[in-house]
Design brief:
The protein is α/β, with parallel strands linked by helices. It is built from twelve helices and 17 strands. Strands 1, 2, 3, 4, 5, 15, 16 and 17 form an eight-stranded mixed sheet that branches. A four-stranded parallel sheet has the order 9-12-13-14.
Length: 423
């Protein structure tokens, strides 16, 4: 017999519209979205009154650390964290060991995903062999298995190599998802080159190290006519360059993270949980990012969930590993700090965290009849204090520790199966 699930009495958010309706799920797919669906005997009914029902969130930028670095995170723990945060799909970054630079090495990751993942995982392949920035991978062979191609963790320094990669992306219909960073401009910096760094004697990472490579890549992408996605932008210059490129018709999209939209460098403390790459930048940069989100220049909010061991994050700002976790706080941070403050609408939050990623990366799905039942239910009235000890991720290092947030995931369905349920 078919299993039927009914999500009853919630506010449905889809395609920019909010309406009161029920959702019926049969055999893992959305069968109906309409008012007052009457349950039959044997149906599993979830009371969603006072809650919001939306397409499962999609995170385009997550480090699951397997294979190679399972002390930091595993497919099992990372995807459990994703489900806890309302995510039904994550795209895993390729700075792994071995790097997914050929079908054979990618298969190791795919087997772990098949065995252990509780949400859908679509990996990235590398742009270059071993992420060394020199020799291109075989785009055609890898494309059927991956979200796109990225050397995340390092920018492709050679103009010629990136130009060749974009030509291959255009030829195969693939997406380049670029970590943009000019190595020679880093100068051993580790936080933003701004007021906090000057006041506290830290070496800074200049904004130009990010936007200069974006500027280069925009010209290369325009020439190749390929699809180009910029990872985790953090500077006002990056926003403006991407805004202008879009106006010119370049096939460019981009993402930023919750921490860049809600913090600035003067919020830093002398703790490793405030260290990530790119760094949290100035208040002026934050304001530009928010404006870019509002006007559509920034397409997606992604976490760059990057777990490390407690020891690796215990060495202060200078010596801790780069990276913070974000899957279990992302929606609540955006809801509390942007939606509740009237900066963006709830519908816009769902767009940039669930709908735009699916559309840009041609993932299909969404909260529509006939689609897979990848659904998140949030209680927007539920308040909580961020306590890393409650995380399902192995990573505990978050700049949001101690924040009072609102908007808690209470149910995540993946193909109609319960991936997370608040008890």
């Amino acid at each position: 017999m078919s299993e039927k699930i009914i999500l009853k009495g919630g506010k449905i958010i889809h395609d920019g519209v909010a309406e009161m309706a029920d959702v019926a799920v049969v055999d893992g797919r959305i069968e109906r979205i309409e008012a007052n669906i009457e349950p039959a005997e044997g149906d599993r009914v979830y009371d969603c009154e006072g809650k919001v029902v939306m397409s499962g969130l999609v995170d385009l930028h997550v480090h699951l650390r397997e294979p190679g670095f399972s002390a930091k995170e595993t497919i099992a723990t990372g995807t459990a964290a994703a489900a806890h945060g309302g995510f039904t799909m994550v795209c895993s970054m390729p700075n792994l060991e071995p790097a997914p630079d050929a079908v054979e090495t990618l298969q190791q990751q795919l087997q772990l995903i098949e065995r252990d993942a509780v949400v859908k995982v679509l990996p990235y392949a590398t742009i270059t062999r071993k992420r060394y920035g020199r020799e291109l991978v075989d785009f055609e062979q890898l494309k059927p298995y991956v979200a796109g191609f990225s050397d995340d963790g390092s920018g492709v320094q050679s103009d010629e190599v990136m130009q060749a990669a974009m030509a291959e992306a255009a030829r195969t219909g693939a997406i380049i998802a670029a970590h943009c960073e000019v190595n020679e401009l880093l100068r051993k910096g580790y936080i933003h080159d701004g007021e906090y760094a000057r006041l506290n004697g830290h070496r800074g990472i200049c904004s130009e190290s990010e936007w200069r490579q974006i500027e280069r890549d925009i010209e290369l992408a325009a020439k190749a006519d390929c699809r180009y996605h910029v990872c985790h932008i953090s500077t006002k210059e990056s926003v403006e360059l991407i805004r202008q490129a879009k106006a010119r018709g370049v096939k460019i999209t981009c993402e930023t993270g919750p921490h860049y939209l809600t913090m600035c460098d003067m919020d830093l403390k002398e703790e490793g949980r405030f260290k990530m790459n790119p760094p949290i930048r100035s208040a002026e940069d934050r304001e530009a990012l928010v404006a870019g989100l509002q006007d559509g220049t920034i397409d997606v909010v992604a976490t760059d969930h990057a777990p490390h061991t407690a020891e690796e994050k215990s060495r202060g700002l200078e010596f801790s590993a780069m990276g913070v976790v974000g899957l279990e706080t992302s929606f609540a941070v955006i809801y509390t700090k942007l939606v509740m403050q009237g900066v963006i609408s709830l519908e816009k939050a769902v767009e940039v965290m669930a709908e735009a990623p699916r559309r840009i990366f041609n993932m299909g799905g969404g909260l529509r009849v006939g689609e897979a039942a990848d659904i998140a239910v949030f209680d927007l009235e539920s308040r909580f204090t961020v306590d890393p000890e409650t995380f399902l991720s192995k990573g505990r290092s978050t700049p949001f520790e101690g924040w009072e947030l609102q908007g808690e995931c209470c149910l995540t369905l993946v193909d109609g199966r319960v991936a997370y349920e608040k008890r």
